[in-house]
């Protein structure tokens, strides 16, 4: 789960990472009140989960009340690369002497946390990496030992940080590591990490991604989930305990097991079709789950045909067939279904379907045959 | 021969008294696996259909000589349970649990690197050595003893591919599910190395998916160290970037971890990559000779 800047900064404060004082605002009057309270100049910042906010005009400095009002009005509702701005963060403006880059990332390849530091901050990291690969210094941390002072010193010296800032920058990195581990984050990125003319080191931005699997340890963070930013079908699926990802094609897909569903999408694409979704009904899918999965798939109006691809292991094909029959009782789909049942109790499942004689439901014996058929039917 | 589990396996199941734990433990025993113990803190002295339950892993190991652990406990307790099994001396730990926090997996992985216990999973279907032992949730009825070693990040996709192979007359030395999480205890390389050393295995099939770089690393390893033929299949060509496709580890990050990059890396090292599950069986027939 990706957090918005102001949410990331809430976590920063909890772990002693210094950041400018700021207030959240969802309306223009709230933004103006926040600015008045903080004292001018302030920065009005769009809160969206996408980079490049500044370039898109989503971050503006206001020197007085009319400016704050004008900027808040302009930014709220603005579209930034496909994301509509519903929230603002109003922050006390900071004087800038230097802009660095700092991050803690979850390095899957090395299977260790990795600390990153660069003197070239305030711009696109990938751009920096291209222009000057040596500028970005990286260091793996043994998770059983944690971030030590020497990690911070070494990174700061290697990145060429000014001598008087070695210690504060190292301390900052240590605190970011605390956020990373204690909040179960998979990414903590600060760009820019700011040095003020008074030589203070503060986090001017915050990009934090937290591990969905660890939210049970962080009920406060779990509450921050932004439902409005989620796709309506994805939200509906989540409420029903289904794993669903919306795509932009017209072939609805249901399968059991993540790998098999991914493979089904690929096979449909190879047959010339465009998958409308990924839906994993899960291992041991019961009839009820199948019924609600059908509802989620059909709630996407673009769907022109649906493919059920089941290989029953723990999942029993007769349960899947029962679920489909029940779904047809509750909703009367007006699109064709192609069903491939293989594995545990497949014959019983196929028999149930044949007996039910559902309108516009076609059975296929193989995965490839089923993919070709559904693509043909979807048109 | 087989890899990891066989007739010498003495299995202890953590979470044996839970609904899923009981169900799969008894299936494993019915298959012929020697299930010697279970662990559920507070239920020591009870039994599950004759299998003794202990409060601690240490008691289970010292009383029964268990050498393999299967972890069936809920995600929030799973890391602790894996560490307990390791501490008690289990040298093979198979973690079925899905949903373990990534940082827990990181600590467990780095700790296990220091000892000589091997972790398979988490978030995996387990290991089946047909005719010898089944540790996990793989539906054994589809598979027979044979010469194809199968290693996979996914469960049902493995059954699909295994079944395609079975229909062409191929059996398996072992089927190893390494799991769909971002920090698997064992990698493709670890299992491929075991198959390379297993006399029964004549063909290795690896089934990968989007996310991470385990397949790319395996490609390098195969080119350098593996003499046996390898066939690969990669799922997730149509996955959009930034979306988790069911498995916590199945995510394309920016331009990294794509199915195309993995397939290219494998092909560049001479590994045959099937375009769909059926083609895996076509390639196997081509390499080993048609059976049916």
Would you mind describing this structure in some detail?
The complex is a heterodimer of chains A (379) and B (292). Chain A folds into 3 domains: 21-92, Dna Ligase, domain 1 (2-Layer Sandwich), CATH 3.30.1490; 98-222, ATP-grasp fold, B domain (D-amino Acid Aminotransferase, Chain A, domain 1), CATH 3.30.470; 230-378, Rossmann fold (3-Layer(aba) Sandwich), CATH 3.40.50.261. Chain A has 13 helices and 18 strands. Chain A has helices at residues 5-14, 28-38, 65-75, 125-131, 149-159, 166-182, 219-222, 232-239, 258-270, 287-298, 317-330, 346-356, 367-378, and strands spanning 22-25, 42-46, 59-62, 79-80, 83-84, 88-92, 98-107, 112-118, 136-140, 185-195, 201-203, 207-210, 243-246, 251-255, 277-280, 305-312, 337-343, 361-363. In chain A, the strands form 5 sheets. In chain A, strands 7, 8, 9, 10, 11 and 12 form a 6-stranded antiparallel β-sheet that branches. The radius of gyration of chain A is 26 Å and the shape is elongated. Chain B contains 9 helices and 14 strands. Chain B has helices at residues 19-31, 57-64, 75-87, 102-112, 156-167, 188-197, 214-225, 259-268, 277-288; strands at residues 10-14, 34-39, 47-48, 51-54, 68-71, 92-95, 118-120, 126-129, 133-136, 145-152, 172-177, 203-209, 230-235, 272-274. Chain B has a 7-stranded mixed β-sheet with strand order 3-4-2-1-5-6-7, with helices on both faces. In chain B, strands 9-8-11-10-12-13-14 form a 7-stranded mixed β-sheet, sandwiched between helices. In chain B, β10, α5 and β11 (172-177) form a beta-alpha-beta unit. The two termini of chain B are 24 Å apart. In chain B, 59% of the residues are buried. The model of chain B has no long low-confidence stretch (mean pLDDT 95). Chains A and B meet through α9 of A and α4 and α5 of B.
């Amino acid at each position: 789960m990706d957090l918005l800047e102001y949410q990331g900064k809430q976590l920063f404060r909890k772990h002693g990472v210094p950041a400018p004082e700021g207030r959240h605002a969802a309306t223009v009057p709230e933004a103006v009140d926040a600015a008045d309270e903080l004292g001018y100049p302030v920065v009005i910042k769009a809160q969206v989960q996408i980079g490049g906010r500044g370039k898109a005009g989503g971050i503006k400095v206001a020197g007085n009340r009319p400016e704050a009002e004008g900027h808040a009005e302009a930014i709220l509702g603005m579209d930034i690369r496909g994301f509509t701005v519903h929230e603002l963060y109003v922050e006390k403006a900071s004087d800038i002497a230097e802009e660095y880059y700092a991050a803690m990332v979850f390095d899957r390849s090395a299977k260790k946390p990795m600390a990153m530091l660069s003197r070239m901050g305030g711009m696109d990291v990938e751009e920096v990496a291209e222009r000057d690969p040596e500028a970005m210094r990286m260091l793996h941390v043994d998770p059983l030992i944690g971030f030590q002072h020497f990690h911070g010193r070494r990174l700061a010296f290697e990145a060429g940080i000014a001598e008087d800032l070695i210690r504060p920058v190292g301390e900052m990195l240590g605190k970011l590591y605390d956020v990373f581990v204690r909040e179960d984050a998979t990414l903590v990125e600060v760009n820019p990490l700011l040095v003020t003319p008074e030589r203070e080191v503060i986090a001017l931005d915050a990009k934090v991604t937290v591990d969905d699997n660890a939210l049970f340890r962080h009920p406060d963070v779990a509450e921050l989930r932004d439902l409005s930013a989620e796709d309506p079908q994805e939200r509906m699926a989540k409420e029903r305990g289904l794993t669903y990802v919306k795509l932009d094609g017209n072939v609805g897909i249901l399968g059991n097991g993540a790998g098999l569903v991914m493979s089904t999408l690929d096979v449909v694409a190879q047959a010339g079709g465009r998958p409308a979704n990924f839906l994993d009904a899960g291992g041991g899918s019961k009839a009820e789950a199948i019924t609600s999965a059908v509802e989620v798939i059909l709630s996407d109006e673009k769907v022109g045909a649906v493919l059920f691809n089941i290989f029953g292991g723990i999942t029993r094909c007769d349960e899947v067939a029962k679920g489909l029959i029940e779904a047809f009782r509750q909703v009367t789909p007006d699109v064709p279904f192609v069903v491939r049942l293989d594995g545990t109790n497949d014959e019983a499942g196929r028999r149930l379907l044949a007996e039910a004689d559902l309108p516009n439901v076609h059975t296929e014996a193989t995965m490839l045959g089923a993919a070709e058929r559904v693509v043909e039917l979807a048109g | 021969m087989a890899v990891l589990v066989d007739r010498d396996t003495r299995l202890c199941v953590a979470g044996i008294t839970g609904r899923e734990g009981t169900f799969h433990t008894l299936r494993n025993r019915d298959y012929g696996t020697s299930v010697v113990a279970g662990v559920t803190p507070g239920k020591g002295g009870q039994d599950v259909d004759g299998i003794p339950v202990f409060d601690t892993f240490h008691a289970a190991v010292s009383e029964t000589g268990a050498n393999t652990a299967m972890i069936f406990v809920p995600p929030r307790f799973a890391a602790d349970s894996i560490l307990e099994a390791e501490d008690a001396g289990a040298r093979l730990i198979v973690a079925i649990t899905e949903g373990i926090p990534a940082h827990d997996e990181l600590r467990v992985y780095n700790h296990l690197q220091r000892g000589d216990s091997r972790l398979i999973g988490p978030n995996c279907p387990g290991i089946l050595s047909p005719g010898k032992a089944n540790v996990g949730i793989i539906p054994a009825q589809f598979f027979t003893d044979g010469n194809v070693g199968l290693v996979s990040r996914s469960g049902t996709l493995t059954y699909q591919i295994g079944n395609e192979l079975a229909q062409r007359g191929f059996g398996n030395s072992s089927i190893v599910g390494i799991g769909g999480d971002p920090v698997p205890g064992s990698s493709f390389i670890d299992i491929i190395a075991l198959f390379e050393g297993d006399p029964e295995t004549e063909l290795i099939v690896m089934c990968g998916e989007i996310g991470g770089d385990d397949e790319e690393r395996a490609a390098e390893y195969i080119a350098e160290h593996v003499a046996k033929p390898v066939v690969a299949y990669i799922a997730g060509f149509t996955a959009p970037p930034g979306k988790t496709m069911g498995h916590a580890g199945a995510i394309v990050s920016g331009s990294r971890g794509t199915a195309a990059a993995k397939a290219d890396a494998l092909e560049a090292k001479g590994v045959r990559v099937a375009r769909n599950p059926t083609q895996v069986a076509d390639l196997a027939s081509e390499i080993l000779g048609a059976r049916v």
